[in-house]
């Protein structure tokens, strides 16, 4: 070989060239694919919101099946009649409210700044659905989701997702059997907006009692479950004023 | 003439049994414990490692004569990390659902000791074709153990395979559960993987006594 591989300047040149090559490959890839990735993320949000209000391809039991991506935009505009943004006392219409990042809004509220909270109003077969987004933390990282309520503050459907919960344990919060347990539960307790807790040992594993503000927990996923409870409670709290205005009894 | 010479075939077959990266070399245990609670996760991980190790071994092998010895570990790490990010980005664009399942494993693939081990032990000293076969062989050897462990842990721990209930419904007490059978929650937690891997090592060594180390 014409050059000395152990030479310091060779090592530095090699490292520099490698960094430039790898950096440009990754930068090119990221910018070439960013449109497609953004589109996928948009579709996913629409699918999640529709899933919470019961617009999905679910069979009788088993797995979670979303509206396919090629139809999601038309279905979204068909079923979601209004997208509202709550900013203090002001409520405005905004067709891109579903793109609002709830995490940033929660951070702003904690700092005492003004925030924009999105609400989605859906209509299906004459029933109205009020869908609010949720954001919280599980065991390892963020968890989030949507909860659809009717005027009686009864849950019509939920969807949860997570960034990095343990597969087989906490990751099961996005499984059908867990999500389905929430349907029909009331978030009211003694006429107050309370939320729904994920509870161990609530003596109701088949979830027949719908007004106990509890669903059966996932075995081995206590912290993720507590995260879900906290997330629902905080979200309900965040939207308290708005929910009081739509509540009928 | 066969497609692969006998030596080449051994590169693929050895790591599947008598030189298995998990059960014989005891590498890659960390990810084998972490992600085998479900069969699907095991399969996804096995395929990802197959790609990263196959391609990574070839890249390292092609670069083996120009990589400065002093920074070779960093170079190996960068090759793995780049490949993993490429896979992740391409999946995000074209197979979004799958990418969400995979995202948890990205970090685990980068730190998988089998990958660094093969780069260091094989790719740096052999040509690209041999390195490719070695990568495929080791990834398959790793994948097989992962899938076997995932199979038993999901079956005994949750009573499901690929999320499909095979023993009936544990809540409604139908199928096997009607007879009083219960899922073993212990199988879902990571220590159970260690025990399953231990049993595999035991079975393998009792079948092939040549593998037992002499003290």
The end-to-end distance of chain B, rounded to whole angstroms, is 43 Å
The amount of beta strand of chain A, in percent, is 15-25%
- Average pLDDT of chain A works out at 87
Total count of helical runs of at least 4 residues of chain A: 6
Q: Low-confidence parts of chain A lasting 5 or more residues at pLDDT below 50?
A: none
| Share of helical residues of chain B | 55-70%
Low-confidence blocks of residues of chain B = none
**How would you classify the quaternary structure?**
heterodimer
Q: What is the average of the pLDDT values of chain B?
A: 84
Strand order of the largest sheet of chain A: 2-1-3-4-5-6
The total count of strands of chain B amounts to: 2
Structural class computed from helices and strand pairing of chain A: alpha+beta
First-last Cα distance of chain A: 85 Å
Q: How many domain regions of chain A?
A: 1
Major sheet of chain B: size, sense and barrel closure?
Answer: 2 strands, antiparallel
SS class of chain B: mainly alpha
Shape descriptor of chain A reads: globular
Number of strands of chain A: 10
Percent range of helical residues of chain A: 25-40%
Write up what this structure looks like:
Chain A is α+β, with helices and mostly antiparallel strands. Chain A has one domain (42-246). Chain A contains six helices and ten strands; from the N terminus they run ααββαββββαββββαα. In chain A, the strands form three sheets. In chain A, strands 2-1-3-4-5-6 form a six-stranded antiparallel sheet. In chain A, β1 and β2 (90-93) form a beta hairpin. In chain A, α1 crosses α2 (69-79). By secondary structure, chain B is mainly α. Chain B has a domain at 42-158. Chain B has helices at 6-13, 29-34, 39-63, 72-94, 96-102, 106-110, 113-121, 128-158, 190-207, and strands at residues 160-161, 164-165. In chain B, α4 packs antiparallel against α5. The N and C termini of chain B lie far apart (43 Å). The A-B interface holds A 1, 5-6, 10-11, 14-15, 18, 22, 25-26, 29-30, 33, 36-37, 40, 43-44, 62-63, 163-164, 166-169, 171, 175, 205-206, 219-220 and B 35, 37-38, 41, 65-71, 74-75, 78, 82, 85-86, 89-90, 92-94, 96, 103-104, 153-154, 157-158, 163-164, 171-172, 185, 188-189.
């Amino acid at each position: 070989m014409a050059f000395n591989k152990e030479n310091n300047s060779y090592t530095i040149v090699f490292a520099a060239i490698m960094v430039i090559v790898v950096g440009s490959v990754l930068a090119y890839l990221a910018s070439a694919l960013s449109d497609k990735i953004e589109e996928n993320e948009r579709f996913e949000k629409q699918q999640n919101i529709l899933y919470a209000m019961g617009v999905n391809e679910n069979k009788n039991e088993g797995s979670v099946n979303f509206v396919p991506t090629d139809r999601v935009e038309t279905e979204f505009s068909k079923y979601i009649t209004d997208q509202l943004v709550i900013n203090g006392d002001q409520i405005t219409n905004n067709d891109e409210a579903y793109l609002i990042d709830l995490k940033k809004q929660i951070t702003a509220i904690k700092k005492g700044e003004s925030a924009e909270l999105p609400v989605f109003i859906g209509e299906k077969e004459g029933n109205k659905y009020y869908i609010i987004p949720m954001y919280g933390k599980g065991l390892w990282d963020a968890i989030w989701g949507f909860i659809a309520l009717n005027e009686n503050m009864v849950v019509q459907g939920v969807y949860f997702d997570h960034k990095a919960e343990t597969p087989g344990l906490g990751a099961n919060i996005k499984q059908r059997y867990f999500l389905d347990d929430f349907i029909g539960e009331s978030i009211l307790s003694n006429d107050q907006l309370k939320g729904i807790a994920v509870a161990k040992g609530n003596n109701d594993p088949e979830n027949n009692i719908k007004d106990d503000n509890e669903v059966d927990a996932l075995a081995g996923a206590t912290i993720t479950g507590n995260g879900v409870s906290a997330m629902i409670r905080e979200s309900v709290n965040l939207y308290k004023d708005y929910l009081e205005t739509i509540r009928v009894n | 003439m066969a497609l692969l010479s006998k030596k080449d075939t051994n590169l693929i077959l050895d790591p599947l049994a008598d030189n298995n990266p998990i059960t014989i070399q005891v590498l890659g245990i960390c990810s084998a414990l972490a992600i085998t609670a479900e069969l699907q996760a095991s399969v996804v991980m096995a395929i990802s490692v197959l790609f990263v190790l196959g391609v990574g071994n070839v890249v390292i092998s092609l670069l083996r004569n120009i990589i400065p010895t002093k920074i070779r570990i960093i170079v190996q790490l960068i090759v793995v990390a780049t490949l993993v990010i490429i896979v992740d980005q391409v999946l995000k664009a074209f197979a979004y659902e799958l990418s969400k399942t995979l995202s948890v494993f990205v970090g685990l693939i980068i730190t998988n000791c089998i990958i660094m081990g093969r780069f260091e032990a094989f790719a740096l000293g052999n040509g690209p074709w041999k390195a490719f076969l070695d990568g495929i062989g080791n990834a398959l050897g790793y994948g097989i153990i992962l899938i076997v462990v995932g199979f038993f842990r999901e079956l005994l721990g949750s009573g499901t395979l690929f999320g499909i209930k095979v023993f009936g419904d544990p809540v409604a007490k139908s199928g096997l559960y009607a007879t009083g059978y219960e899922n073993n929650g212990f199988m879902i937690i990571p220590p159970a993987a260690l025990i399953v891997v231990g049993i595999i090592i035991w079975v393998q060594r009792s079948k092939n006594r040549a593998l037992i180390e002499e003290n």
